[in-house]
Amino acid sequence: MAVALTLLLVGCLLPGALCGQFESIIPKTIEVLKGSCVTIPCSFDVEDQYNVNLDNTCKALWRESTFGPDVFDSSNPQQKGQLIGDLTQKDCTTTLNDMQPQNNKVHNFRLECDNDLKYFFDGVKISVTDDPPRPTLTPPTLKVKEGTSVSLSCSAPAPCLSLPPNLTWSPGLGEGQETLQENQDKTKVKISVLNFNASHLHHGQEISCTAVYRKQDGSTESSVNTSLTADITYSPKKTTVSVSLSGPIRQDNIVTLTCSSSTNPAVKDYTWYRADGGQDTFMGTGRVLTVKASDVSGPFFCKAENELGSGRSDKKDLYVQRLHCGPYGGVLFWAVTGVSLTVNIVLTLCMVFLWKQRASMKPKEEDSTYMALDHTNRSPDYDVIAKRHT
């Protein structure tokens, strides 16, 4: 008997326990979206002698104050709401429809039966809001190594059981598994769990969960979201080499080579190699390497390394513009130069010779013309004419 009494007392001290007295278990506050419904989880107990009074004549009343008007009467089907629980089982769970700002008050539960059982229980503060609360992400941050199996949970309150929120994930990393769960105070919450394997492609992405709430009054649905930025650690990817010069590269050019890589965390070591057949020859270290073009023969590559691994670029050739062609290039160069010089000298001498020749020529026609006008060759007839006029 003592043991049974001890167990009963311990049980009454547990959260949510009812022990043969007038009391109720109702959430202290519930947040509800304007224009939507609210389901109030409710249970109660009565003193033992009143248990026999719990029958089908009992009804549930909800009032905004002890002496205020009834907001809901389970015996009146015209009122906007529904008694979901069974009063004979001490379950007073009730749904109130189309909540508006004027309903932003404390709602008290009253039990009335067609007998001696009538009692006012504690109430719940209903908070009517224009926007729903943002969903909760668990964990709130995401920092994992590539290849890790990730499980993200998104939860959003479901105050209206007939219109629970619809949860969606972005970007499309997979389908979330949805369930409706119960909080400690008996309120409901919609949960969506997303599972995927972390990839370096996810690094820096914003992963978002959106909750969409529909309303009973037909007004525009409300949507809110919560997001996090994925921090995925991975070894170097997409390692590449870039060259500072564009166009032909001459033998005497100084060339700057840059090694780039996508990685998280940052690269701690860069190493350069020249691929000589089947052997890799070390060229230097550092993200940037400066070399003389004539010193680079054969393809080369760089290697980037961080604490998780390394990445290697493709082999790259420098196309160096040579000053000679083949083993006889030097002889050919001087031969062409000599021939060109000789031709120029010959052409110059020919032009000088032709100029001198032209300068030494005598005009024959001019000589004969002047000779014809000379006195000594004048005709005798001219002399006779001249004497007559004198």
Tell me what you see in this structure.
This protein is α+β, with helices and mostly antiparallel strands. Helices cover 16% and strands 41% of the residues. It contains 4 helices and 26 strands. The strands form 7 sheets. Strands 12, 14, 17, 18, 20 and 23 form a 6-stranded mixed β-sheet that branches. It has a 5-stranded mixed β-sheet with strand order 2-10-9-5-6, with no helix packed on it. The longest helix has 31 residues, at 329-359.
Strand content: 35-45%
Mean pLDDT: 81
Structural shape: elongated
Helix content range: 10-25%
**Which value, in Å, is the CA radius of gyration?**
52 Å
Helices and strands, in order, run as: HEEEEEEEEEEEEEEEEEEEEEEEEEEHHH
DSSP summary: helix tally: 4
- Low-confidence segments, given as residue ranges, are 1-11, 324-334, 363-390
Features:
elongated, 5-stranded mixed sheet, 390 residues, alpha+beta
Would you spell out the secondary-structure blueprint of this structure?
Blueprint: H1 2-13, E1 23-25, E2 29-33, E3 38-40, E4 43-45, E5 59-63, E6 70-73, E7 81-83, E8 94-96, E9 106-112, E10 118-129, E11 136-138, E12 142-145, E13 149-157, E14 166-170, E15 177-182, E16 188-197, E17 206-213, E18 222-243, E19 249-250, E20 254-264, E21 269-276, E22 279-285, E23 288-292, E24 300-306, E25 309-312, E26 320-321, H2 329-359, H3 364-372, H4 380-389
Parallel strand pairs: 2-10, 12-18, 19-26
Antiparallel strand pairs: 1-4, 3-8, 5-6, 5-9, 7-8, 9-10, 11-13, 13-16, 14-17, 15-16, 17-18, 18-20, 20-23, 21-22, 21-24, 24-25
